[in-house]
Design brief:
14 strands; homodimer; 13 helices; 27% strand; Arc Repressor Mutant, subunit A
């Protein structure tokens, strides 16, 4: 698949609605790709033939499952920077208003078999009572329903967990540049974070490091929440030293309204959990939003996750308690 | 565990023999750590108490399993650069002589349950007939036996596969600097490499990327060797443009004596399999030495691998055919 088709497919992938060549051409311009409607139509026709897109109505198109698969496997070299640039893009798009407690935050979306939903809620209950979740709010969606712009496939249930990149977004709106350095596995002892046992740089990976650690069975979130000793997903980030006071205040403020996840803020220019920091930087350790999903894998419930998946209106989230009442 | 103990434990880990504080002190100096024998003895005592080391004879020490575990989990932040610096160190230590076909090469060591050995040999047979192995030679060791300085634990069998970093070593001895950039999963179609579907930078990871891809079940080596379509382990490396002709000649020469693994050498300053290269560099795609072990995981045979594990005398390796005769 050439780069033009790749760009068109990327636009289609982001749409939940049917979209025409005019709108595609317009959206491509935003990504720095200049194509006439006519050229877009030419490529769409080839993509239809290959089964990557499908015609709806007069000229509308939608991406197919095969198209999504192709997208995931293509041009992976460009995705090495993809994770870090996705973090930057989504941080900018966060529009959460702390006073009103509304606006868009970032969600991870995981799919499980619909039949596993009740078992799932039981397994993740202790995780949602621990400090190792981003928020006590989440969203559950049934087949055909949407979480942001993600549609839950047939026979599946979708779980939307608050993504920790939301904190980058909130910090950015307050003028604090929070930079994600490493995704890692964090060992806990006596319910305290003790050290990272594995690290992958966000800049040098085509895959989300935390999703890889789940697939590699490297976590023990259930051990950490039940007995205090285990291995959770966490990431290492940095802020400039000059922002440390405001970062501390902001961390406190968002924790009060239910967005937690900031485990540790270090001292200026000092290593944090043995991790050295850059010149005039302060380290911050933040829990992975996917910790509940890691617990599922540990309990033998198979799931499929897309980290940093979609934007979602914060006020539409439901507390874990209410979620239990509704679905159990 | 503090850095001093970490350094001592690292020295102990590399020894197959019992070692005294005098020798430890001497070896530490080579690593830039200056400790008197007396200080070494002081720390060894604490390490004995914690169960990381054990006394043998008058003053000899050996690392324990607990010590090895501790070493694997400690100071991971220093290991982010660890993979790339291990590649550089081992490349330098390679002493393979192409004319005599002897000298030290680098091996990966994998352990399986001893009872799985026959099944293992059957599973990896088609991999050893494919172009996706580094060499058709390997080594099998039984419990208590050694592969280089690695001892096979009780109840296990050890499989030593030629590590692809051996090529970096051979190139370096010929004056060609081969730099490992990314470990990846490479899709094959009609028995030809088509594209990378996942990439992790060697510079930004505390773990060997290829070992992670095996654990995450992202390979389909058996598909690639049986039907031509699958996903193998491979890495992306670069040489300066000025060395390309010699690199091509050298690749041919080592293939003739049985060290394969170089799948593609690109054109100067041109992308290779969609991967861009650095200024005045040429891309090279080399198979992962662990492809036979990936096939084991795919077949449901559990294994535990240490990539870039040890140096090994090339002439002591056995062809796969002779290995089958001996062990099947």
């Amino acid at each position: 698949m050439n780069k033009t088709m790749f760009a068109i497919l990327t636009v289609l992938d982001k749409q939940s609605e049917i979209i025409g060549s005019k709108e595609i051409s317009k959206q491509l311009k935003l990504h720095g790709v200049d194509l006439t409607e006519r050229t877009v139509r030419y490529h769409l026709k080839i993509m239809d033939e290959r089964g990557f897109s499908k015609v709806f109505g007069k000229e509308g198109r939608r991406i197919t499952d095969k198209g999504r698969e192709e997208l995931a496997q293509s041009h992976v070299s460009e995705k090495v920077g993809f994770i870090i640039s996705r973090i930057e893009t989504l941080s900018y798009m966060t529009s959460f208003d702390m006073e009103k407690q509304e606006g868009d935050i970032i969600m991870n979306v995981s799919f499980i078999h619909e039949k596993d939903l009740k078992h799932t809620l039981k397994v993740i209950k202790p995780v949602y009572k621990s400090p190792y979740v981003m928020s006590d709010r989440l969203v559950i969606a049934r087949e055909g329903e949407q979480i942001g712009d993600v549609i839950v496939p047939e026979g599946k249930a979708g779980i939307g967990t608050v993504c920790s990149v939301t904190i980058n977004g909130i910090f950015l709106k307050s003028g604090i540049p929070l930079v994600s350095k490493f995704g890692g596995v964090l060992q806990t002892e006596e319910s305290e974070p003790s050290r990272f046992t594995a690290l992958i740089s966000y800049e040098g990976s085509s895959l989300d490091p935390l999703a890889i650690f789940i697939r590699s069975n490297m976590t023990d979130v259930l051990g950490a929440v039940k007995h205090g000793t285990g291995r959770i997903l966490a990431s290492f980030r940095e802020v400039p030293v000059v922002c440390v006071d405001e970062a501390n205040m902001l961390a406190k403020k968002i924790a009060e309204i239910g967005i937690g996840g900031i485990l540790l803020i270090g001292n200026p220019n000092q290593p944090l959990l043995e991790m050295p920091v850059g010149m005039d930087k302060t380290g911050i350790v933040i829990v992975g939003g996917l910790n509940p999903v890691a617990a599922l894998e540990e309990a033998g419930i198979s799931s499929e996750s897309k980290a940093m998946s979609t934007l979602y209106e914060y006020s539409h989230l439901m507390s874990f308690k209410d979620t239990l009442k509704k679905h159990l």
